[in-house]
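Q: Can someone sanity-check these two? First one:
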Amino acid sequence: MTTFTTPADILPTYEREAADFQAVRNKSLFEKSNLDRMLGITPRNVAQRRLLDLGCGPGAPIATYLTDRGLAVTGVDGAATMVELFAATLPNARAIHADMRTLDLGESFDAILAWNSFFHLDQDAQRAMFPIFAAHAAPNAALMFTSGTSDGEVWGHAVKEQVYHSSLAPDEYRALLIANGFKVISFRAEDPNCQGHSIWLARFTGG
């Protein structure tokens, strides 16, 4: 009988797999066109735009690219070894060991990114993230995250270990975004130009 991992296994798994994940992570920056779309709607509320990278991992290639584009990146990850690798990759960036589900930094950002991290949360935890996104969003902030394409749970792999994923239905994501002060800019389901990732882009319009 197959034994499935749970959301509670995610952080311990990435803790164990951090170094191997960094070694095998695709660094071709296939995400670039979508990151550029996010940057295109990221406001210039301060001299240097600030980005919150939730589930930042080891920092390459995404946070490295965004830093090179001039953003001040704050990386947050619940796996301590990932935070250590992020800090080593980007010594001038800020790295924080924290669980995104309880994050309360008391500050706002011009862009919030949760790339291939948010979808490891269970469905109720995903629903609870939208007020956290809003609490950390500066006026007109950009929000980008990846999700599934339909309501349900699936299992994949992080290097050698099984990992949990879940998704809400697209209509529920839209409703949650709107209810928490975000305007949906686009949803690209299984984008063929981004290795099949499903990507949400929204702008914070709430107070």
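And here is the second, same format, sequence then tokens:
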Amino acid sequence: MKLGPDIAAIVTGGASGLGYATATALRDAGVKVALFDKNAELGLEGAAAIGATFCAVDVMDHASVEAGFATARAANGQERILVNCAGGGFGAFKTAGRDKQTREIAAYPVDRFELTVQLNLIGTFRCIALSTAGMLTLAPLDGERGAIVNTASAAAEDGQMGQVAYAAAKAGIVGMTLPIARDLMGEGIRVNTILPGIFDTPLMNRARPQVKEALAASVPFPKRMGHAEEYARLALEMITNGYFNGEDVRLDGAIRMAPR
């Protein structure tokens, strides 16, 4: 897909981190961009800085997502690009474990598992389904109607202790990439997924410096955390390279996560 002012894009989780870096790269390429995010203050500030449209959206709420698409399309037209970066976790819990002090046994809080799946997996699919339904109304450009990039995680393949919900949700994104690409192959819409490793994002900045240093040292090469701009460059390659379809690509400096 050739990028330019005749193309509209939506980036979920677009107010910060990987999403904002990708939105910025798309705007730099001339694309009309809408940011979906729950953080209105950050989203409005970021959108103003790059000349994008902000839509207050919670990907776990169907009506909110529908309203976001309506707002974005009213401002920029029907999107041909969707980048799904919205996601996160709701704490680390073992499937079953013992309290370190009391030795009391507790099972994983299933409501936290459900929330994690709702946010990462179902939230991503909700946006894909609604976006592609809109893309089907478009005439093809150079044989294609649209391109989608999803965000999974290295945890989809190397989930650590306490990450069962997050790993399962991200593995679900990996697992649905090829079937969705096949669902949409007759309509000229491509779908790919990036599996980031340890990235230097606002969420990671909450960690103590020594924790960040240890994480960076655990990457085989280069021994640092990934930069959001590196994610953005891969996302744009997936969007612009017309033969990139149905793929799940790790972007992680060759790290393979240890059990803990």
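A (reply): Looked at the second one. The mean pLDDT is 96. The domain at 8-200+228-250 is CATH 3.40.50.720 (Rossmann fold).
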